[in-house]
Specification:
Order of helices and strands: EEEHEEEEEHH
Number of domains: 1
Largest sheet: 8 strands, mixed
Helix content: 10-25%
Radius of gyration: 21 Å
Number of strands: 8
Length: 180
C-alpha cells in the first residue's frame, strides 16, 4: 500500500505555509482514518484554508464541508475561503476531538486524525505515516500514542500467562532469591 505525505518528511524542509498532511493513497475507507493532519496552531480560521486547498489538489475534487469538534479548536468560522470559494465549517461536541471530517464532492467523506500542534516532531512524523497506512481496527488514540509491548515478559494474552485449569490469567511467578 502506498503512503503519500503531502509535505516533505524532513521537518527542516517544510515551509511555514505547507500543510503537514498525509493521506492513504488508496482511500479504501476500511480504516479508522484516511490520513492525518498536523496543524501548527489550534486556530481553525488560520489553519483550515491550507488544509482544504491541499486536500482539493491531492484528490482533484473540491472539499464542500468541514466538520470538527467545537472544544478542540479556537476561532472556528462558519465558512472559510479556500481556492477562491467558500467552504462550510460545522462544529460538534459529539465528534471525536482528534478527528476532522472533510465532505468531498463526488465521494465519501475523508476522516483525518488531528495531531496536536505541540507534538514532538518525531512522534508527529510517525503518526502521519501510521495514519496513512492500514488503520483497520486501530483507534485514533493508538496512532497518537503507540505503545510497544514489553518483550521481556509474557503479555496477558500470551499462553504462558494462562493457568492450566480454568483459563484464569495468572501473573508471572516472581523468581525466588537464591538461598545459601
Amino acid at each position: 500500500m502506498m503512503t503519500t505525505l503531502l509535505s516533505p518528511p524532513c521537518p527542516v524542509l517544510v515551509t511555514q505555509s505547507a500543510p503537514r498532511l498525509s493521506l492513504n493513497a488508496v482511500l479504501d475507507r476500511r480504516g479508522t482514518v484516511d490520513g492525518a493532519w498536523w496543524p501548527r496552531t489550534r486556530d481553525a480560521a488560520a489553519e483550515l484554508p491550507a488544509l482544504i486547498s491541499a486536500v482539493d489538489q491531492r484528490l482533484d475534487r473540491d472539499v464542500l464541508r468541514v466538520g470538527l469538534h467545537l472544544d478542540a479548536w479556537d476561532h472556528i468560522p462558519r465558512r472559510t475561503t479556500a481556492r477562491g470559494r467558500q467552504v462550510k465549517v460545522g462544529w460538534f461536541r459529539s465528534a471525536d476531538p482528534h478527528l476532522i471530517t472533510l465532505s468531498i464532492a463526488g465521494t465519501l467523506p475523508v476522516t483525518l486524525l488531528i495531531i496536536p500542534p505541540r507534538t514532538a516532531v518525531g512522534s508527529a512524523m510517525a503518526a502521519l505515516a501510521l495514519a496513512a497506512a492500514d488503520t483497520v481496527g486501530v483507534h485514533p488514540a493508538d496512532i497518537l500514542h503507540p505503545t510497544a509491548p514489553d518483550e521481556s515478559s509474557p503479555g496477558r494474552d500470551d499462553p504462558a500467562s494462562w493457568e492450566n485449569e480454568g483459563g484464569r490469567v495468572t501473573d508471572p511467578v516472581p523468581e525466588r532469591p537464591a538461598t545459601t
